[in-house]
Amino acid sequence: MSRRVVLIGHPVAHSLSGAMQQAAFDAQGIDATYELWDRTPLQLPDTFNEIRADDFLGANVTIPHKERVVPLVDRLTEEAHATGAVNTITREGRRLVGHNTDVPGFKVALDKLVGRQKMPRNAIVLGAGGGARAVVFGLITEGFQRIVVFNRHLHRAEGLVKFFGRTAAHMELRAMPWHESIIEAELAKTKVLVNATSIGLTSDESPIPADILLPELLVLDLIYNRTRLLREAAAAGCEVLDGELMLLHQGAAAFTLWTGQPAPLELMQSKLKEARAGGLRSAEGEPAGPHAEVAAGMAGVSTAADGPDSASPDAG
Ligand code: NDP
Asked: Could you identify the atom of ligand 1 that is nearest to the CA of residue 285?
């Protein structure tokens, strides 16, 4: 029987995940198709009943449903439970299990960004959505001792902090209002800066002004592109990394959950780049097209040594 995996989101017209997962199934000789299902919130209960059938290996869930689907599964893994967000579904008979592979994906990216340095203990997270929840949980479990979350709507950052109450009981997790002077003061005490907002996704904007970026910072942008924040941080002397590695590794972890096999990482990475060059978008909404095509070639850790040219919008 041919098996199916579906990506459930709204919209999901194009998807980088489709390109990398289908290539991985084909390369490993797994008779499965990766389908894109555009479903509104109201359609989710019926959709989740449909994927309990035997022909489904599982599913991916993306924007805007990651938090909404939590009550629709029968069991949550520790990471899905701890983050309150699900991006991957597997089946146990007719029961559905909700996983969060954004967490391991983020940890791979964090490790790459930190490199041979000692794992830092202080971080600033910009944003308080589903992506930020995976980031904050990843940081807590990596042993960070102080995490400050800034969000445009403060109440959402406060909600996130409250949600992690018990998980973060041993350390300092704080929500702060989005004021430039407060962000600047906190940056001076911090080693890691993560952008988990969608600022920079569809426009050439940075969440923070370039002149408050200090050269010692390690800067990760979840957006799968060389954003203005990353270009300005690299120009200021910071180590920077975009969201490609996280996207790749959340997909690889999902592949292994569905198939029980290790993911063909190199193939998936090259399919990601190829799909972006062809103009596809990630389910996470990263921009594609010529701008992204160049960025795909530049993905990875870099520093100011990339030179000022790489900081021009055309180069990113
Ligand atoms: P959500 O929609 O859940 O959250 C969006 C966040 O961005 C919120 O904190 C929101 O603030 C903030 N935001 C959006 N627009 C603005 C603005 N104009 N000014 C200030 N803040 C703004 O999305 P996700 O958390 O799922 O995704 C966030 C980003 O992370 C996306 O760009 C996504 O592509 C990326 N991502 C990448 C992944 C990867 O694998 N590389 C995985 C997951 C996410 P507010 O609450 O105030 O509206």
From this structure: 34
For β-strands 95-99 and 88-92, DSSP reports them as antiparallel
Beta bridge partners of 59: 6, 89
The rounded distance, in Å, linking the Cα atoms of 34 and 255 is 11
Predicted confidence band of residue 281 (pLDDT cuts 50, 70, 90)? low
Nearest CA to ligand 1 atom 34: 284
Ligand 1 centroid, distance to 205 Cα (angstroms): 14
C-beta of 60 in contact with ligand 1 (< 6 A): no
Kindly give the distance from the C-alpha atom of residue 94 to the centroid of ligand 1, in angstroms, as a whole number.
Answer: 33
209-267 pLDDT per residue, tens: 999 999 999 999 999 889 999 999 999 999 999 999 999 999 999 999 999 999 999 99
**Known active-site residue 66:** yes
Q: Which two tokens stand for residue 173?
A: 């997790």
Cα 131 to ligand 1 centroid, rounded to whole Å = 7
Cut 0.85: pTM above it: yes
Task: Report the alpha-carbon distance of residue 116 to residue 182 in Å, rounded.
Answer: 30
Minimum-distance ligand 1 atom for the alpha carbon of 126: 9
With a cut of 80, say whether residue 276 has pLDDT above it. Answer: no
Give the C-alpha separation, 82 to 236, whole Å.
Answer: 35
- In short, whether 196's Cβ falls inside 6 Å of ligand 1 is yes
Contact status, residue 250 vs residue 273, Cβ threshold 8 Å: no
Q: How far is CA 14 from the centre of its chain?
A: 17
- pLDDT value for 284: 54
Q: Does residue 154 surpass a pLDDT of 60? A: yes
* Integer Cα distance of 252 and 238 in angstroms: 28
